[in-house]
Automatic annotation (TrEMBL):
This is Deltamethrin resistance protein prag01 domain-containing protein. The keyword Transmembrane helix applies. It comes from Strongyloides stercoralis. InterPro entries: UQCC4. Pfam families: CCSMST1.
Amino acid sequence: MNICSRIFLNCGRSCRRFASKDVKTMPKFSESKAYYGFDKFGTQNKYINEKFKPTYYDSRKYQERKLLSIVSSITVVVVYLAYLREGNDLDEVFSTPQHVLSSNIERKMIKTKIEQAIARGEDTKLLEAELAYFDVKEEALKAKFAK
């Protein structure tokens, strides 16, 4: 019986100790640090009640100058490319029809194959026939695109 009374008294003491502690109330969520996100120091709070103060970059004058700057830059580039630039070799390449450019490349390839075959001592009759056929093909392309 003595042991039971000791256990009972000890339980009573621990219950009284637990009940006598001050219970902290939880703050409202809107007042907690979690409400303000990752910023734990409240630097975001300074913008909450602040009124909008327009700057020069928000003004209509700045927007008009920016638009004028873009339009004038594009105009300068177009004028340079259209009128002021001198002609060069690339202009000739770009103005040449495609079939002429491709035929020149193909002709050079066939001539290179003929030179390599001569250097190896092989027969070049087939390559020369291919070159002759290519000349006929080139004349047909010229007639087709001349119309």
